[in-house]
Amino acid sequence: MKKIAVFTSGGDSPGMNACIRSVVRTAIYNKLEVVGIIRGYEGMINGDFLPMQSSSVSNIIQRGGTILKSARNKQFMTKEGRAKAAENLKNEGIEGIVAIGGDGTFTGAKIFFEEHGIPTIGVPGTIDNDLYGTDYTIGYDTAVNTVVEAVDKIRDTADAHDRLFFVEVMGRDAGFIALRSGISVGAEAVLIPETETYVDRLIEKLKKGWERQKSSSIIIVAEGDDAGGAYEVAEKVKAKFKHYETKVTVLGHLQRGGSPSAADRVLASQLGNAAVNALIEGRYNEMAGIVNRKVVFTPFEKAIKHNQDINQELLKLADVLSI
Ligand code: F6P
Fold first, then answer.
1. What are the phi and psi torsion angles at 35 (to 5°)?
2. Which ranges constitute the DSSP H helices of the chain?
3. Which among 12, 48, 128, 225 is annotated as catalytic?
4. What is the pTM of this model?
5. Ligand 1 contact, 11 CB (< 6 A)
6. Lowest-confidence pick of 39-53, 142-156, 205-219
7. Does the beta carbon of 127 sit less than 6 angstroms from any atom of ligand 1?
8. Hey, do 3-139+260-305 and 141-256 end up sharing a CATH topology, with the first three levels equal?
9. 3-state class of 57 per DSSP?
10. pLDDT confidence bin for 214, thresholds 50/70/90
11. Distance separating alpha carbons of residues 126 and 8, to the nearest angstrom
C-alpha cells in the first residue's frame, strides 16, 4: 500500500481534527502518501482531493469542526455516484481509506467496498456515542462537558427564581448525552428514547420535590425522547402541575462545536493511528474502537446494526440520586 485517503462525513464532532492529524502523521511515519477528501463522499464524487503533509495538520489538534469539511451526500447513495467516486480514487492511486463518521458513513463504506473493493477502516466520530464496538465515540465527552457547563448556568438562574427548566440535548435516537450530563448536573429527571417516558410519574416526582421546598428542578430531555422534545414535555407537565414556573432551553448545535476535551483528543489520536495500522495490515470493512481501554475492531455490519446498550446502572443511579 502506497497511498491512502482520509475523510470526515455526517455530523461533525469535536476531535475529528485530532483524528485527521493522527491519520496523516501515522501514514507519513509509515512512508505512505496521504490525501484528504473534502466534504466526505461528495468530495469523492467531485474528485476534491487535497495532498497532505505533516504541516497540513499542524495546530489543529485543539480545534473543533473538521478541516476536511463534512456533508451528507445523496448522490453517493446511487450506484452511479459510487462508480464515479471509485473511478476518481483509482485515478488518484488511492488504495485504502480512513472514514471518520457515524453509522451513515459506515453504511456507505460497506456498500462501496462490496462494489469496488477499496478497503476502508472506520473511526467513530459522532457526539451521540451510539455506535456498537466502542465504549466512547470521538466528540461525546466534549459534548457532555458542553452540556454540563450550560446546565450549571441554567441551574443558577433556575434556583434564583424557583423555576422548573426543561433542557433539550442532542440525541435523535440515543440518550447517552442526556444520561451522562443528567448525572453530572444532578438533574431531577432524565428522559431518553431508550426508556418509555411516563409524564404522570414525572409529575409525581416533581410534586415530592415541591413539597419539600426544592427551589429549582432541571429535567434533561433527549431530543428523540418518545414523549416529544422539551417544549412538548414542558407543556404536558404544565397542564397538570401548575406550581412551578416552567422554562425551556434547547441547547442545539452548540453541543457539536468547541475545542475537544483531553479525553477526546487522546481517543481520536489512538483511533486514527489504529485505523492506518489496520489498513497496512490488510484489514477492511471494520470500525476501530476502544473497549475496556483496548483497541478493538468491529465489522461495519455489526457496528451499524447492533445498538450500543444504555448503561442500566447509570440509569438507576440517576433515579436514586434525584429523590
Ligand atoms: O451528530 C448527531 C446529531 O448530533 C444528532 O444527535 C442530531 O439529531 C443531528 O446530529 C442533527 O444534525 P444535523 O442538524 O447536522 O442534521
1. -120, 150
2. 16-29, 40-46, 79-91, 103-116, 140-161, 176-185, 199-211, 230-240, 262-281, 300-305, 312-320
3. 128
4. 0.96
5. yes
6. 205-219
7. yes
8. yes
9. helix
10. confident
11. 10
Mean pLDDT of 170-187: 97
Compute the average pLDDT of residues 201-230: 92
Domain boundaries, the chain: 3-139+260-305, 141-256
Q: Residues in the chain, how many?
A: 323
Nearest-atom number in ligand 1 for the CA of 11 is 1
Does the Cβ of 137 fall within 6 Å of ligand 1? no
Q: Whose CA is nearest to atom 15 of ligand 1?
A: 11
Amino acid sitting at position 40? G
Ligand 1 atom nearest the C-alpha of 170 is 6
Q: Pick 274 or 162 by higher pLDDT.
A: 274
Yes or no: domain 141-256 corresponds to CATH 2.40.128.710: no
Q: Looking at the structure, give the CATH architecture of the domain made up of residues 3-139+260-305.
A: 3-Layer(aba) Sandwich (3.40)
The finding on whether 128 has its CB within 6 A of some atom of ligand 1 is yes
Mutate to test the pocket of ligand 1, among 103, 146, 172, 194 (most ligand atoms within 8 A of CB): 172
| Ligand 1 contact, 169 CB (< 6 A) | no
Q: Is 128 a catalytic residue?
A: yes
For the chain, give the percent of residues with pLDDT over 90.
91
Does residue 221 carry a pLDDT above 90? yes
